[in-house]
Amino acid sequence: MYAPVSVVIACYRCSETIERAVDSVYQQTSRPFEVILVDDFSEDGTLGKLSELRERYPEGWIKIIALKKNSGPGTARNEGWSAASQEYIAFLDSDDSWHPRKIEVQVGWMMSNPKYSMTGHSCRTIKFLDSEGASFDFDSANFRRVGKSPLLSKNYFSTQTVMLRRDLPFRFRAGKRYCEDYLLACEICMAGYLCAYSSLPLANLYKDAYGAGGLSGNLWRMWVGELEVYRFLFSSRKINFSENAFFMFFSFLRFSRRCMVVLFRGKL
């Protein structure tokens, strides 16, 4: 019996990591109904790798969408979202993976709490191979509601943790390459849809969350992307002038702290 979940993975030059990501989906205790791999015009052999993976799994379980131009992860995820057939959609980044019970815990909670439209959870960074086998107290997998103010101060819904209802009238901002997940979460939350978060680390990262390469490693552009989120929310009257000023300043403090952390890691 499959879980009523479509998994969407945006793929861009990820031939070295996508196998791990897809396998973590297949190994779920509650296996999702389908996986949709969206190649964002990689032009490096990634599309061939996706086709190879499709042949390893049950027929029809993996679906592949090949974009004709590079458009960014938000656009790629939107294509997968539109092609999804299940009640719930979960997103995974191509260089990350999931704990085997991620779908079981998350979709189980959402099905038991149908008033909630989006959930997220924490992540952990894998430093050593044997740490992937860590176990957790799943009795503590309580989700708590995230409202407007907490969300403005912190993104509780990073892409690899998000599960949402397919029928939500939202999409990632087309062409936005930084903080597109944060903007989507803010729009959903501030439109009055209920959102919740669990501190249980059900996603695995294989590099530091920032300052370690890739889109998430570009601290400056991430910060600019975050400021763009606040400006958009202000211009669309979802936050007022005082809130915009306060959270933009708070964002600057967070950016400064991250720069210091990366500096002391010796990566600047």
Would you mind describing this structure in some detail?
37% of the residues lie in helices and 21% in strands. With 268 residues, the chain is of the alpha/beta class. The chain folds into two domains: 3-206, Spore Coat Polysaccharide Biosynthesis Protein SpsA, Chain A (Alpha-Beta Complex); 211-268. Strands 1, 2, 3, 4, 5, 6, 7, 8 and 9 form a nine-stranded mixed β-sheet that branches. α7 packs antiparallel against α8 (241-264). The chain is globular and about 55 Å long. The N and C termini lie far apart (48 Å). Residues 128-133 and 211-216 have low confidence and may be disordered.
Describe the structure in brief.
By secondary structure, the chain is α/β, with parallel strands linked by helices.
Essential attributes:
single chain; about 270 residues; alpha/beta; Spore Coat Polysaccharide Biosynthesis Protein SpsA, Chain A; nine-stranded mixed β-sheet; about 35% helix; about 20% strand
Number of domains: 2
Kindly report the oligomeric state of this protein: single chain
| Shape verdict | globular
Q: Calculate the mean pLDDT score and round it.
A: 90
Q: Which class do the helix and strand fractions yield?
A: alpha/beta
Named at the architecture level, the CATH assignment of the largest domain is: Alpha-Beta Complex
Distance between the termini: 48 Å
Whole-number radius of gyration?
18 Å
In percent, how helical is the residue content?
A: 25-40%
Could you say what the CATH topology of the largest domain is called?
Spore Coat Polysaccharide Biosynthesis Protein SpsA, Chain A
Spans where pLDDT lies below 50 across 5 or more residues: 128-133, 211-216
